[in-house]
Amino acid sequence: MVGLLQFSLQAIVLDLMCKFSVVIPFYNEESNLPSLLVSLKAQSVQPNEYIFVDSLSSDNSVALINKWISDNNFSNVTILKDVDKTPATAKNQGILYSSFAYIIFLDCGLDFDSFLFENCLSSISDSSIGCYGSFGFHKTSYLDTVYSLIAFNYNNGISCIPGGIYNVSLFKIIGLFKPYRAGYDRYWRKDALKLNLKIKSLNAPNLFYSGVNFSDNFLGLLHKFFFYRLSGDFLRSTFPLSLLSFSVIFLFYLFPLSFVFYLLLRYFLTLKKSTKFLTLSKIFYYTPGIIFLIPILDIIRVLSFALSSLRLSSFVLKQLKRV
After folding, report:
1. Under CATH, what is the fold of the domain 2-209?
2. Residue 130 pLDDT > 60, yes or no?
């Protein structure tokens, strides 16, 4: 009983210590919203306002949120419209609308415990700037895990914008998110570093994807990877890697041994940070998939770089959206 009382008092103190908004962008998320809304209501500390930003959904997403508001008699929930229909611009809408000192961002399709808001507040108790969220990865299908290894070294603790808490003054100093479909978070974090704004990172993941991390089928994975490559402004950041990949693919036809060397190098770099998460037997198990997928993803990088250089990204994106 004493422990329960102490816990309740701590939650009350944290609630009084900091006023914050929760910003949640969404687009056609009727399948993910029910679990998200349950998780929001279960939070040990509730925000001063929820701001949902709708990128013009065509399903029942808005109706689900309105029912949740009505069922719980919430008076602090707002639904905004984002005509630009990107996660970055939707988050920017929420930032501009927010009335409080801090903002926590969340996305649909994520799993998190009932102490996420409370832990976010605790993370800024000794700093008024903010703290990034942290993604972890489920061990799901073979293909999904292989991609997680290549893209993120299966590192449970990837810093991210969702699940973090930020003082609104940061967005006046750094600026809003760049209006990209992907990559906007990376550029914002780089700008923060350039200004010597040391935003903290959590030591352990507080967010996980619901279900698979990325995709559990090959064509779906390639489609998603290519779509995200084209959707962000990757021209500057991927030029060296794209050029290297193009050179290696070209050299493959002239000197097959150079391709073998490239493949081995990329393989060992992939596993460099993954050994602490995988046993030796698991490394051998995933090796064929890694070696198979690496050159395919690098070819997609080269293709997306070429399309961006030729200013054909917008046209190709429209075609991909129809698939």
Report:
1. Spore Coat Polysaccharide Biosynthesis Protein SpsA; Chain A (3.90.550)
2. yes
